[in-house]
């Protein structure tokens, strides 16, 4: 979720929190269970917020220790053998987040554990002007006996939003490990809607100090320096079945052998900052394209690559722009009604509410799906792509109104609007596919360390919704990162869900093995 990529994190917007799982640990090892959420329609976001949890951006934080003595004993034994374990929750396969505690007594927060950034931030109790802060837990410095004032201003810009505030220092508990004197950012401004709807409160960066805002020491560095982990290694396991069991786990100080098959293939970190390494060829159905550098990024929901290759992939899987599809759906289903309303001299701002795709706020149409942020939390749904359909409708109204003013015939107007729909780019680059075509789609393989890591269609296609409302979204999105940093692939949760990932800080290498 590092700068400029969080975009896909917001790929979600409305899901159900999975049951939280306990984080147990023992000396030298930290195991953190992750919570997960599946992708929903809103998730196109990028930043990923979305679904995944769009919600990924939305709700977030409820936590969850289990009092079952047998489970506790089992977890403790695993922690002693493998490291400190943090359970994660999965929101729509788009947001994976877990709990931490800051201060004394502890104040609980849910965070994205993000290998694509390096700072820790949570909302501040002094965040008064951003609505997003009121939807999440806020840090109260005055209630912590271990708080130390810093006050240095800070800001972080992500692909889908930005936060700003100031640095403070306090103790931070991750799993059962307490990190002393950790610098972090108290966010006093979170202007993006992405953070308002997210399931998480903040972000805990696990990247290198080289990309740390304010040159602060990342929390992982302090875990190692303070002797809180046995080995300078942490590993991720993401459960891609959002409705089944624990969302995932991070193990600090070790590796859980129950979460992978075979052996890991390791490649050296080639550029510190992100966890960047050289990647070989990318194959589409066995056909070679080109290789370049890549980063393993737990804070990005999808797989991001150069436009030239993503275009080839999406052509092979029959992907079309989500926005174009929504636009054509509006024209096909509501085009005649919209024309009739305009000919009846209905005010353009009221047309989309009149046909039922938007609600009218007094000046213009507003997506009826806004309420779904709340409705989805209690298991309801306002229907697929409601906000997208509203936006497409209002765009079509503008086009049609202009054409009618030029005295064009009905057939010519509808034909022209369909042509314009084809030109509409998806705002975050996501593309939809025909769910019934998965069986005919090719495997996509990434060559890492001389070994091919294959993704099958069911692994790189994200399903949003249920039953007849199900939509399928391509797990690939384009982003052209210029030299010298790029071109670059970002291997996000789609890839890390298929392959257990080890971040070896001591030996500066990254390892991948088939997830179990």
Automatic annotation (TrEMBL):
BP GO annotations: lipid metabolic process; proteolysis
Residue ranges annotated for the Saposin B-type domain, each copy included: 322-362, 386-427
Pfam family, one: Asp
Cysteine disulfide links: 127-133
One Gene Ontology CC term in the entry: vacuole
A GO molecular-function annotation: aspartic-type endopeptidase activity
Subcellular location: Vacuole
Domain Peptidase A1: 96-513
CDD domains referenced in this protein's UniProt entry, alphabetically: phytepsin
Transmembrane domains' residue ranges: none
Residues spanning the signal sequence: 1-23
Key words of the record: Aspartyl protease, Disulfide bond, Glycoprotein, Hydrolase, Protease, Signal, Vacuole, Zymogen
Main location: other
Assigned protein family: Belongs to the peptidase A1 family.
Function (record text): Involved in the breakdown of propeptides of storage proteins in protein-storage vacuoles.
Protein name, entry field: Peptidase A1 domain-containing protein
Lineage of producing organism: Eukaryota, Viridiplantae, Streptophyta, Embryophyta, Tracheophyta
